[in-house]
Give the backbone structure.
Amino acid sequence: MTELLPLPGLRHVPAADAPQNRKEFTSDQEVRWCPGCGDYAVLAAVQGFLPELGLKRENIVFVSGIGCSSRFPYYLDTYGMHSIHGRAPAIATGLATTREDLSVWVVTGDGDALSIGGNHLIHALRRNVNMTILLFNNRIYGLTKGQYSPTSEPGKVTKSTPMGSLDNPFNPVSLALGAEGTFVARTVDSDRKHLTSVLSAAAAHRGTSLVEIYQNCPIFNDGAFDAIKDNESRSEAIIPLAHGEPIRFGRDRQLGVVRDRFTGGVRIEENPSDADVLVHDAHAADPTTAFALSRLTDSGVLAHAAIGIFRQVEASTYDDQARDQIATARAGTTDTRTALAGLLASGDTWDVV
Amino acid sequence: MTKQVQQLDRVIIRFAGDSGDGMQLTGDRFTQETASFGNDLSTLPNFPAEIRAPQGTLPGVSSFQVHFADHDILTPGDSPDVLVAMNPAALKANLSDVKKGATVIVDSHDFTSRNLSRAGYAENPLEDDTLAEYDVHAFELTDMTVEAVKEFGLSRKDSSRAKNMFALGLLSWMYGRPTDSTVTFLERRFAKAPDIRDANVTAFKAGWYFGETTEAFAVSYEIKPAPMAPGTYRNITGNLALAYGLIAGSTQSGLPLFLGSYPITPASDILHELSKHKRFGITTFQAEDEIAGVGAALGASFGGSLGVTTTSGPGLALKAETIGLGVMMELPLLVVDVQRGGPSTGLPTKTEQADLLQAMFGRNGESPVPVVAPRSPADCFDAALEAARIAVTYRTPVLLLSDGMLANGSEPWHIPEVADLPMIDPAFATEPNHTVESGKSAGERDFWPYLRDEETLARPWAVPGTKGLEHRIGGLEKGAGHGNISYDPANHDLMVRTRAAKVERIARDIPPLEVDDPLDEDGRGADILVLGWGSTYGPIGAAVRQVRSSGHPVAQAHLRHLNPFPADLGAVLRSYDTVMVPEMNLGQLSMLLRAKYLVDVIGYNHVRGLPLRAAELAEAITKEITR
Ligand code: SF4
């Protein structure tokens, strides 16, 4: 008998019969990203982490949209669909709702998820369909060769904006929390350990998990995340979020996040007292503080960013409830063709003899 | 007093009133009574796009036409024999369609100077000679209703709302309709509001008694039941029949049905209907937009469901890219377009057939999609099942083109035996289908997602969860057989041709075109063929009958499959001197026929948002014959 896994997000997905390794999850397709692209690190992390999940490989599906990162499914030997621009969350919704025995993953980018597919993203989050969305944010359009994206800092000079871009960027975490996402996290391509731990938690979560992955594009937007990657600056730039831990950082942990009495939000303070430092509560039902934390991220050139799991709360999922409604309606219906005969002959009928 | 009963072979009645007057319900009840009596019938509801347009104005008029007979009929009829007008606007908006000499029954209550001017009447038409050529019966229907129901203590406004039931009672008496089903219906519908229930039942009965006793009507009429094949019947609208056909597609294939849809007129009723039948394992997903609706359906198909999306023209435009993805990934997908007047928002509640070319070509690249169209409301059942068969067998999106007239119109339906419905075999792939030729895995078995069935050219459908068949598909061009991304020029040429050939192959299991030719027996054949598709079947059939009865032979044929066409269509077209193609568009089928067969067909085209008029079409056919 197939064993099922205890993690809520994978409750109905059959477990593998034998331990698996990364090789089994690697397809025979040649990876075609630019040398040095952050996507390689994420792919390696996923190929390393999927076997550890212990799922049957044939019950895993990766659905992507369009963009550099959306080539991702081709490189994994699972089921996969490289769909069309922006629509992966909608496609995955149909798949996840009809197949509770699948572990469904969406791979998308900042243009795919937040520009052309913005509508599908917020509605997937609102519905809380059981799937994990990996949003590769490189703050630029890579595949179309370097136009600014909906997460680029204002004033970005690109081929399509020679005098600087004019629009305000989205903060993907703020957006996801605004849509009341039940699992919202941010991690970084180059930090394999953190990436893996966040992805594990995301897969374990029942409902829509959104993981924003800061991903470097060395070709068109190199260095966008240097502040949080550079050994010198990172300890002051990364605001680490760990559930139940006080939010302290800096070389000597001299910085802390405290409540701001005037705005009702939060702010960074030097040498705050222990009593004042906010203790991160990812499980808070109300997303207000999580949202406030997401605002500590710069919308312009990145100098500070909160990294970690912002929100992780239990809530009913669309797909579980949809299946429950069907199960309730089905009770007692054994043969659908007999039921069909009954349905066709319902209403006001008359007989001609 | 016993009144005289006069026999008639057919009658066309139109109920017209304000959109708040309940004319659709009245027409629907009269239709149900007529259906259970055993007449053949055909209906045409006609209502404004606004939910409650300003009261008493022409744009606010809603009407319901029912044509019933003691013989088989094909259309809701061109012009009514009886018009029931509940206010001046309803009279004004409908009178021009009514035959001279027809009966016009009017509720005179609303003929006040204010309402008259709202409807655009300078003088009261009941008092001048506007109606001189009609048999006019003006009654205080509202006052009589209020009087009849006063014992229930309702406000004047609530009492007067039952006037549609009074009118229904009167017409039911005039045409000898059975009344039990309406009484039962009202009792059930208003079960929670006893005073309203009683008022409606009382008004309905009062209308009947009024007919019986008033001296205004000397006769009542009898229309004998129409001969029909033995069996069980019900009256059914196209949207309902289409929903049932989709359910049958699921039960006959064993595939769970998934509907991804965004509400749009006139397709929403299919979503409503399927939502009621979750016990068939149906998932209905009201998506955030049209694109998500079809996307979720395609995702469900990838997972082994029968993915369906329902929409109307504007929604089809939005779904185009996803349908193209379905063409590339070669997965079953049903796309239902209940056509309405266009372009853009167009005429949401009116009918048209102008999405044929959009269905055929409204995608980027060479993107062939099979197209199927029902010919009548009841036929929507069979057409939906056929569309499901093609989608599953050939692993392809299929477009099912209904329209507003079919969607809301109704006719008696001979309910089929489920045992007689065709079965559909999803034939999922379960095993590797290919042997590795070279390299270190030479000799091992693996799975090629684009290795085709030689007969149908369909590719294998391997759903997630099937061990050993893991594969990736997507919108990028696929290499023949192995299905990996391929930018090879020769491969692209091959794949484009193969996708087209696959759709052409469907013609192999389409029956030859049925041609109804009165001169077929003596081997001569008529000189002219009238060829149609979709909801024009009724009007074309009625027109052809008229032409034949005036002594001119004319052949008729109707296309269910618009892509691919039946294999013998070219030969049929070439065997007639003249081919006439009536359509509710500016010649879209004509264009396809001319392009494909180089046959100079003659178009007959109207885009009034209404069904073609049989009499006008008959005239056009006759003109063509006698030219
Ligand atoms: S363009 Fe940028 S994001 Fe795209 S593959 Fe190259 S480096 Fe990666």
About this structure: Chain A has eleven helices and twelve strands. Chain A has a mean pLDDT of 95.
